[in-house]
Amino acid sequence: MAASTPRAELVIDLAAFRRNVAVLAGLADRTGAATMAVVKADGYGHGAVDMARAALTAGATWLGACSLAEALVLREAGITARVLSWLDLPGEDFAAGVAADVDISVASPRMLRTVAEAARAVGGRARIHLKIDTGLSRNGCQPADWPALVAEAADTPDVQVVAIWSHLACADEIGHPSISLQAERFDLAYRQALAAGLRPLRHLANSAALITRPDLHFDLVRTGIATYGLNPVHVPLDLKPVMTFRAGVALTKRLPAGESVSYGLTWTTPRDTTIALVTAGYADGVPRSLSGRMEVLVAGRLLPVVGRVCMDQIMVDCGDLDVREGAEVVLFGPGDRGEPTARDWADKTGTIDYEIVTGMHRPRLRRTYVGVPELVET
């Protein structure tokens, strides 16, 4: 590990990301659907602007952002592709979104009027996607209120209804009865929109439904976690995780048998051994709950982390292995070198890999991008 390498960093493989997008866009293309690459939460911790640009070169034609603020970051970076923003507070400056040609999700008459007023203020016409709650019971218009919403939207000259959409609750559970129930409710909502005089696009499928339910692709699919190489369903698909988390060995020391390590002295050397001090801790995204329950890749070997995870560092039991100070330590990655994966961390901590990678958005972690186009073999 070079001396100039940061103490802890994320290595983001843009070539793997583009390939993942191409694979997923290929699935969508079979059914005639366009692909929206979701880059919310700073690109799931990978970097929104870089991921957006890479996605657009690999087959995506739309981008998804949670908030208007996230969408405007993409616009400020010079990205002109269609961007959908879907979760904002009532006091948000929607005029800025309309002026920047951002598509805005609308789930209530109040929101519709707010966006229409913003459009009038800038002398434009807002592009909106009407969201129907088909059973997730999160954001979206209740079915009983939907006919009134689509009728009002059809009669509002300051908005253009581009699409209707919804989100699936259990798409990652193949065969779950709620999937088909939500699809039926979505179809009814679409027919009600048509009856109101609208001619919208439809989008319902997330990553899991893109892979397992081609009948729900409709006009547009929203690819989220799968574009980052994390497969949400147990269906074989040639995806590669994009993020590698690595750090360095700051110090090695030889400890005799019977010495204890780290806060609380919860682990004691059973023999003479070499301990490597690694420069990443829970402030850098290493869950403290993995204390004594994780391994890292050092010098091509999986070695145990011992003692409690600290704010800035972890300790690795290297036994008699000759580990150099400054050596690279891989905490998680794609797994192709035998290193742990984000899924491994998630399984051990009782969460999902989404939380692991988005949780890596931390001030001390620098991102390094590899696989940039000019360096990737054609």
TrEMBL record:
Pathway: Amino-acid biosynthesis; D-alanine biosynthesis; D-alanine from L-alanine: step 1/1. InterPro entries: Ala_racemase (IPR000821), Ala_racemase/Decarboxylase_C (IPR009006), Ala_racemase_C (IPR011079), Ala_racemase_N (IPR001608), Ala_racemase_pyridoxalP-BS (IPR020622), PLP-binding_barrel (IPR029066). Its EC number is 5.1.1.1. Its cofactor is pyridoxal 5'-phosphate. One of its GO terms (cellular component) is cytosol. Transmembrane segments: none annotated. Keywords: Isomerase, Pyridoxal phosphate. The active site is at 40 (proton acceptor), 263 (proton acceptor). One of its GO terms (molecular function) is pyridoxal phosphate binding. Residues 242-370 form the Alanine racemase C-terminal domain. One of its GO terms (biological process) is peptidoglycan biosynthetic process. The keyword Flavoprotein does not apply. The modification N6-(pyridoxal phosphate)lysine is found at residue 40. It catalyses: L-alanine = D-alanine. Substrate binds at residues 138, 311. Belongs to the alanine racemase family. Catalyzes the interconversion of L-alanine and D-alanine. May also act on other amino acids. This is Alanine racemase. It comes from Umezawaea endophytica.
